[in-house]
Amino acid sequence: MNEDALKLRTKQFGLRIFKLVDALPKTTAGRAIGNQLVRSGTSVGANYRAACRGRSKAEFVAKIGTVAEEADESAFWLELIMEGGLLNPDLVSPLHREADELTAIFTASGRTAKANDPKS
């Protein structure tokens, strides 16, 4: 998958997060998890774009690590939504799968970039 495709994919992930958060119940738990999920879910795309503009391999590796962490954190909040019964798991699980896939993609990308860096 190329850079532009990943930029689009991470943006779509953020937009899907918005829709899911809007569907959460307006309870203390729903608001708390929703706020955290919006932050982590939109951070995936924002930090990926920043990584693509990295001035060095080390900066790219560091930013990609942040992208992977934010995608994984999003997966955590989605798990809480499903396991806490806040939304029907059938509605949440496709987005959870996407969070897991993005985590795997960016974790592998970071490892590859680090392994290909002669300074590491």
Description of the structure:
- By secondary structure, the chain is mostly helical.
- The protein is built from 4 helices and no strands.
- It has helices at residues 3-23, 28-52, 57-83, 89-115.
- Helix 1 packs antiparallel against helix 2, helix 1 (3-23) packs antiparallel against helix 4 and helix 2 packs antiparallel against helix 3 (57-83).
- It is elongated and about 50 Å long.
Task: Give a topology summary.
Elements: H1 3-23, H2 28-52, H3 57-83, H4 89-115
Helix pairs in contact: 1-2, 1-4, 2-3, 3-4
Give the termini separation: 25 Å
Which range does the strand content fall in?
under 5%
Tally of domains:
1
Q: What's the rounded overall pLDDT mean? A: 95
How would you describe the shape? elongated
CATH architecture verdict: Up-down Bundle
Brief write-up:
This protein has 120 residues and is mainly alpha-helical.
